[in-house]
Amino acid sequence: LNSAGTNGSSVMTGLDVSAFGETMTSTGVVHSTAKVLPGSSSSLLFNGTAVMSKTGFVDMSAIDFDISISVHPLSVPGSGNRVLFSNLNGTANGIAIAQNSDGELHLYLGLSWAVKAGTTGAVLPVSKWSNVRLVRSGDQFITFLNGVEIDRTVSSADLDATGNLFVGNNSGAEQFHGYIQNFHVVTGKALVDNDFVPTFTLPALVKDFTPPVTLPLPSPGEYGLAGNFNGATTQMTLGSIPEIEGANDRTITAWIRP
User: Fold this and answer.
1) Which of 49, 142, 225, 227 is spaced 20 to 30 A from 198 at the CA atom?
2) The dihedral of CA 94, 99, 101, 107: what is its sign?
3) Which of 89, 99, 134, 93 shows the shortest CA–CA distance to 115?
4) Distance CA 96, CA 215 (A)
5) Cβ 96 vs Cβ 88: under 8 Å
6) How far apart are CA 251 and CA 43, in angstroms?
7) DSSP string of 2-23?
């Protein structure tokens, strides 16, 4: 979910947000230029009563995942919670991260919150941008605030969260008050497991890695080339490749020996 006016190649229409190849619906959410991240033209303003949701979201009950969101709270709740995001089946099953009455990040995990339901001890700064990230890697649930690990909970329990996704609210309640950008969900893989430097942009789908000493043979759908270049007249071209044309996602790697 990129709130800079577009999501990939899909243009936002009104307040419907194209996300994850599907449509999230919202009530009361408006585009704003008052507080935006570098390189962005707008953010989403949640006024304390606005909601954004997607029903029938992917089943995240027993898989690894990586959820990242950039938030700019405008105030401390004072009472109750203000939810950044939640993925709930019913009212108390799944995951949720909230700003609690003291302004601290509060984490909820599991069936009826049996895995975790408590503060992380970290205060979410008000009137400034922060990056909040929750990843699941195997039996570890790791929460980061601005790239620093603030909670690590170990559990093998399923989350029992097969239903809905909410941004800036919890099933229509506990609404967030502030600005939101760059809400990103990766399912099936945790992209980080240690402290990192947030860029306040959508997380890359491949993090830093150590390449193999030898190149693997291309698999179906991949193309491999090798050659010598003299810096003056030699070049290499490859014909039309549908997989890397148009708006398709792609990963391109190259080994060079200057």
Assistant:
1) 49
2) positive
3) 93
4) 41
5) yes
6) 28
7) --SSEETTEEPBTTBEEETTEE
Does residue 202 contact residue 69 with C-beta atoms inside 8 Å? no
- Mind giving me the DSSP string for 91-129? SSEEEEEEE-TTSEEEEEEEETT-SEEEEEEEE--SSS-
pLDDT tens track for 60-106: 888 888 888 999 999 999 888 999 999 887 667 889 999 999 999 99
Strand partners, 142: 135, 152
* 108-164: pLDDT as tens digits: 998 888 889 988 989 999 999 999 999 999 999 999 999 999 999 999 888 877 678
Residue reference for tokens 């009472």: 79
> 101 is written with which tokens?
């009455």
**124 vs 131: CA distance, rounded Å:** 9
pLDDT of 211 > 70? The answer is: no
Cβ contacts of 110 within 8 Å, gap of 6 or more: 93, 94, 116, 155, 157, 159, 160
Read off the pLDDT of each residue in 162-183 and give the average, rounded to a whole number.
87
Neighbours of 229 (CB within 10 A): 11
CB neighbour list of residue 190: distance below 8 Å, 6 or more residues apart = 64, 65, 66, 135, 136, 137, 142
> Are 73 and 126 spatial neighbours (Cβ–Cβ below 8 Å)?
yes
Whether residue 239 has pLDDT greater than 70: no
Distance CA(96)–CA(241), nearest Å, equals 42
- pLDDT tens-digit readout, 191-210: 888 877 776 544 444 444 45
